[in-house]
Amino acid sequence: MKLPACWRNLGSVVTVVTLVGLAPPLVQTARAQSQALRASAAAEDEIRSATMRFYVALNSALHSDLDPLSALWSHRQDVSNLSAVGGRAAGWNEVYADFQNMARLYPYGRIAPRDIIVVAGTDMGYSVCTETGQLRSPEGPMVSFNQRATNVFRLEEGKWKMIHHHADASSNGPQGATR
Known about the structure:
Radius of gyration: 26 Å
CATH class: Alpha Beta
Helix content: 40-55%
Distance between the termini: 90 Å
CATH architecture: Roll
Structural class: alpha+beta
Oligomer: single chain
Number of strands: 7
Number of domains: 1
Order of helices and strands: HHEEHEEEEE
CATH topology: Nuclear Transport Factor 2, Chain: A
Number of helices: 3
Strand content: 25-35%
Largest sheet: 7 strands, mixed
Shape: elongated
C-alpha cells in the first residue's frame, strides 16, 4: 500500500531534522579529534626537541659544563637516572652528582641519539633511541659504544623537563663498549 504524499513528505522532514540535529555533535567531535591530533603532534615535536637538547646538554656536561643539563632536568625528588655503567640515582641531588661523576670519569666524550621514537601524552611523554658515541675509558683510550636509551619527560610550567633517563647495552650486535 502506498502512503499518501503528505506522510511521505513528513517522513522526509523528520529525517532531515534528525540529521541536522545530529550534525553539530558530529562536527564538534571531528573538531575535537582534529585538535587532539594537532596537540599530540605538537607534544611529540616538543619531546623530540627536548630529547635533542638532552644530548646537547649531556655533551656539554662531558666537557665540564653541567648548566644546560641542570636546566633541562626537573629538580623534583622523583627524578631518576639509570646509567649504562650501573647504579641508580634517585632525586635531583643524586642525579646531578651522577652526571658530575660521569663528566669527571669520561671527559671529552660525545654521545648522540639515533632512531628516535617519541610517544606523547598531555603532560608526560618519552623517547626511546640508540645512543652512539665515544667515551674515554678509565685506562685512557676512547671507547666506542651503542646502547639503548629511554628518556621520560614531564610537562612542568609549560616546559618539558626530563624526569628519567635509562641506558643499557644494546641487544643488537656487540654488547656495550667496543674498541
